[in-house]
Design brief:
Radius of gyration: 17 Å
Number of domains: 1
Structural class: mainly alpha
Strand content: under 5%
Helix content: over 70%
């Protein structure tokens, strides 16, 4: 556990931080084929909570960074798929490998988001490998 989060957050803080993760899951289900929907919903939730406690802001920032990273990968896959469907581009081994990688990446992120939402709701700090480091750089205490 990081020393910045050695205190026990209030119940409202834990709920708001957890809702940041849940927002990305709900947006994923609502806007599945369009990768930008998740990011827009997460940005709106982040903006609504950017003046909250450090615990809430940090977790909203981590979720935002994670959704931005997913947007990059998903947008490439979406564009490539649209090119195959609507032009003379053919399905290649590279395309299949990329789509499998993106699906696995999304599945892992989905599972980690559920785990993070549950733990954060209990007041436990959850820090992801890449998103957590970037959240520390962005979010000031």
């Amino acid at each position: 556990m990081n020393s910045l989060f050695s205190y026990r957050p209030h119940d409202q803080e834990a709920e708001k931080a957890s809702n940041g993760y849940l927002m990305s899951l709900i947006a994923l289900m609502a806007g599945m084929p369009l990768p930008i929907i998740n990011l827009i919903a997460t940005v709106i939730f982040y903006l609504a909570n950017r003046r909250g406690s450090y615990f809430v802001r940090w977790h909203c920032t981590q979720t935002l960074v994670s959704q931005f990273t997913l947007l990059l990968f998903n947008s490439i896959g979406f564009s490539w798929t649209m090119a195959i469907l609507f032009s003379h581009t053919f399905i290649s081994n590279s395309y299949i490998a990329y789509i499998i990688t993106v699906i696995l990446f999304n599945l892992v992120e989905f599972i980690f988001t559920i785990i993070a939402a549950i733990k954060t709701r209990k007041g436990i700090h959850v820090e992801w490998w890449f998103s957590g480091e970037v959240a520390h750089l962005i979010c000031k205490q």
